Amino acid sequence: MPAAPYAVAVRLSSPPKDDRAGQSRPRRPGSDHHLGRELRAYLTAETGSAGLLLATVVLALAWANSPLGDAYASLWSTDVTISAGDAVLSMDLRHWVNDGLMFLFFLVIGIEVRRELSTGELAGRQTVTVPVLAGLGGIVVPAALYFVVGGGDDAPAAWGIVIATDTAFLLGALGLVGATQSTPLRVFLLTLTIVDDVVAVTVIAVFYSQAVDMLALGLAAVCVLAVVALGRRRVWRAGPYAFAAVGLWLAMIESGVHPAIGGMAMGLAISAYPPDREAVQRVAALVTAFSQSPVASLARSAQRGVIQAVSPGERIQTALHPWVSYGVVPLFALANGGVDLHGDVLTAAVSSPLTWAVVVGLVIGKPLGITIVTLAAVRLGVGRLPRGVTRAHVLGGGALSGIGFTVSLLIVELGIDSPHLREEAKVGVLFAAVAALLAGWLVFRAAGPPRLPDVLDPPVDPARDHIRGPVDAPLTLLEFADFECPFCGHATGVIDDLRRRFGDELRYVFRHLPLTDVHTRAGLAAEAAEAAAAQGRFWDYHDLLYRHRDELEFEDLLGYAGALDLDVERFARELELGIHADRVLEDVVSAEASGARGTPTFFVCGRRHVGPHDAATLAAALEACRPIAHP
Predict the structure, then answer these.
(1) Global pTM?
(2) Which of 139, 239, 328, 441 could form an S-S bond across to 101 if both were Cys, CB 3.0 to 4.6 Å?
(3) Is 244 within 8 Å of 226 (Cβ atoms)?
(4) Alpha-carbon dihedral sign for residues 178, 184, 187, 191
């Protein structure tokens, strides 16, 4: 079965969370079911790696300042040589990490940028304008403050330290300050950090490259063009992309331009597209053939069909991102975070203009630039803040953006030649990270959690919504529900009581909110209900599902279709191909926009109902809204 775009592959191992009002809740803080699975996976990996990254920084500092500090310095200065015939490539271990593994880091970032621009959160101008402008403000203002404070003799070379934000630390810090419940805020800040990363790589290319070998740079360009050609020809095998990546990296090493540029360029060049309907149909046919005749040749064909249906960018990112988040970035932190604080290093840093230029740029410049530009863009009507995100939350997110770390430390290594000044700059980066976290915590503590929307968005549409009762009834009760949710099952009796009490004065509206991280079969059940709706039997199928809430396997869903005399062959085909997944996703997006975080969530005359949802309470709420026209 193809995965639905809202599906979350988490097994139900314990009873679902429920609040005092009798409601199923997702396991994760925040409601991100409306996001594409690729973006959810990216956010999860980045957030999850933050703890490991922090532990690695602490380990590096402890190691560098322990009696084994000499071993730390000696390890990372060890030369590692690879030779093949007359070709020799030799670098110390730190450069293998910074120039080698960080190529993969920027490759993953480039793939994510390309995907977001093609099919993700950055594809819509209305949603992307404000965070992109905010990202630019978070670059220009810190750099300007850096020069105002003055970084000493190395100021012109090291200003790039203050322009970048560490995505993993930022998303992890949101969890520490209690702001992970706001998915719109997380996406806003992720968009902002993507802008930071793109600009940071450009700055590295322009300002931190050595004498450029044009022939090697030309070969690198050929490798990138080869990747573009592979994408246009829909080449799905990983081998050609890996070969191009190795060639690109070697060419960048020889060119004098930092390999990070090559990684980002290749990531942007790798094609990203959603699976087309024909490809999904071919996969479904191959899987069906294998289920009927499970032989090795059909298994290979089915496996190849699944791989071909997914874009190269998504497959490469899925394979590399966990390794980068949980391996490459912590290894980079271990190699570069071990600042030796013995002797006069800390004292010199406290009195160093370079240290304070870095701290001011990151801790003050970042939130100032992001907040000012965001508010100006909103005031001028260029765009608007995501629902539930306030100005204070933008300021808090801007403060946390002062955690530069990964790219900042990379630019320290590239831009500063003096070992003593390099240590002072690293102290500034580390101090800024602590100060930014504290500032963000204070702002979010003062602002409180992002306010959930409470108005139904979009309003009820008789042309698409599932409605029981007269479509023009004066009273409207809408429910976001999940077919596997026990509380939704109990609520069906409440709905029946209310319909008997109000008669033709009430219209009841059903929208889907499958909590697939706690109810693993809810997404498929929702699609099955839509498949039944396509044959004019939504409410009959809806009632059957709630009568058999614990029996929602694929075969069960087909059985219910047969019991209602539906065209079972058509029903099964639509379910296998995910024909109705987008229709369910529309309801999930509506739930996010309307502030629904669990099931059931009721809206009375277009306003989110808070509190118990027994028949008496909901009846009182409906009576209270009689003067209000339904949405």
Answers:
(1) 0.65
(2) 328
(3) yes
(4) negative
- Torsion angle of the four alpha carbons 176, 188, 382, 113, in this order, in degrees rounded to the nearest 10: 150
Q: What is the DSSP string of 109-140?
A: HHHHHHHHHHHSTTS-HHHHHHHHHHHHHHHH
| Torsion angle of C-alpha atoms 274, 279, 281, 286, degrees rounded to 10 | -130
Q: What is the pLDDT of residues 499-543, one digit of tens each?
A: 999 999 999 999 999 988 788 899 999 999 999 999 999 999 999
**Which amino acid does the sequence have at 309?**
A
Give the integer Cα–Cα distance in Å for 512 and 590.
9
Q: What angle do CA 25, 29, 34 make, to 5 degrees?
A: 75
Residue 283 has pLDDT above 60, yes or no: yes
Residues 314/39, Cβ–Cβ less than 8 Å: no
E strand spans, 451-606: 466-468, 475-481, 506-512, 601-604
Helix ranges restricted to H, 311-416: 312-323, 329-336, 345-350, 353-359, 366-379, 391-400, 406-415
Q: How far is CA 213 from CA 84, 88, 220, 311, in A?
A: 22, 17, 11, 34
Q: From CA 402, how far away is CA 330, in angstroms rounded? A: 19
In the prediction, which pLDDT does 182 show? 55
Task: Count other Cβ atoms within 10 Å, centred on residue 348.
Answer: 16
Please classify residue 207 by burial: count the beta carbons closer than 10 Å to its beta carbon, then call 0-12 exposed, 13-18 middle and 19+ buried: middle
In this prediction, what percent of the chain has a pLDDT beyond 70? 81
Buried b (16+ CB within 10 A) or exposed e, 274-296: bbeeebbebbbebbeebeeeeee
Q: How confident is the model at residue 8 (pLDDT cuts 50, 70, 90)?
A: very low
Exposure b/e, 396-419, CB count within 10 A at least 16 = b = bbbbbbbbbbbbbbbbbbbbbeee
